[in-house]
Amino acid sequence: MSRSFVAPTSLEDALAALAAGARPVAGGTDLVVGARQGKAPLPDALLAIHRIDALRGIEEVDGAIRLGALVTHEDIVAHPVVRERFPALADASAIVGSHATRAQGTIGGNVMNGSPAMDAGGPLLCFDGTATLRSSSGERVLPLADLWTGPGSTAAAPGELLVSIDLPAPAPGTGSCYVRLEYRRQMEIAVVGASAVVTLDGGTVTHARVAITALAPTIRRVPEAERALVGSDGGPEAVDAAADAVAASSSPISDVRGSAEYRLAMARVIGRRAVASALARARGEAIPIPASPALHGAH
Amino acid sequence: MKVDATLTVNGTAYPVELDPHISLLSAVRDVVGLTGSKEGCDDSECGACMMLLDGKPVNSCSYLALQADGREITTVEGLAGTENLSTLQRTFLEEGGVQCGYCTPGMLISATALLSQNADPSEEEIRVALAGNLCRCTGYDGIVRAVRSAAGQTA
After folding, report:
1. Whole-model pTM?
2. What's the ipTM?
3. Which of B20, B45, B64 sits opposite A28 (nearest CB)?
4. Is residue B155 part of a domain?
5. Of A80, A148, A203, A296, whose CB neighbour count within 10 A is largest?
């Protein structure tokens, strides 16, 4: 098959190209880099979506946000509402790759790449994010938990394009944090990561979401950790119980970045830091964005 | 099949015909003929190929050239004026920020991107911003000094 390339400005034209078999590319920070590394050749039929204005921008309505698929990590880190209300997401986007990666890499590509180690995935899941997928024949909305089906795979059909991610407004008294174990400050992929979103009401945890990164075949929630927190005072015992649940729910692999045994040991540590820091933010304590280097003592 | 495009590099528009898979780095070096940007790792680890695309840093080895069609590309050749080096280029020389020179085009572009967003970065902020640019001579101290020295001076 000969190579082809289209770069439409309208979503309709893009969906028609997808239906005809073209594969999408936005910032290229996964697709093109993966091809350079020999993971998979570039598709013969390329659909560049970077000119579609309808996929750009972060919209806020009554505290809820909609991230267009072309929103970059740089956009996320710079957005005042994300920093104020969804700091775990800013923590994650602030430490993706280098500043070139963050300027070009999009949230849509990040989510659809389906990596169990993606930094932004845990925060999006803990904020109860939903993905809107559109094809030439219609649209459907999927919770992110149902989108990720395995390492590098999603429930999206080949003709479907992710157009946006929606995050509902967090309740007042909500704090959140994403922490990863890393060997370098930048240009790093999570060895182990954890996210937490907690809501405190009158000193009691009324809502909790905890998720693990690079510890299972997909980014996934840890319901046992959430149950350990809800109804508690968010004190050290509850945090320890949540951290134990994070470790108990992890099934890491061994690879170049760490052995399964090391990851499992660190799951408890990173899980504890994420939960404790989300609680601290819920109490109004200042933890800088990104949280990960701060919690490693780098600041 | 090759596709017609216009690559605007350092303010000059170059009409080109490109294979859909060709990288921005290969297109600028081999088709346009500007060889200042370097290929190091060819998979976004080292930053030697870094250019600005509409003012934002991009690892051009891993970016499709056709996606730069009609946009503003800046390479190291575009940093100097006709008579004078840019402030960063001058401070790189003054502070010993250049050893073998292979990482220098990417370092200069990366630091230019940093200073365009943050006119007076701390040493920590400089090190974070340049983390995607590897210097195999390990000459980082001179590079960081050069960026600090350029900060606050008129670009």
Report:
1. 0.96
2. 0.95
3. B64
4. no
5. A148
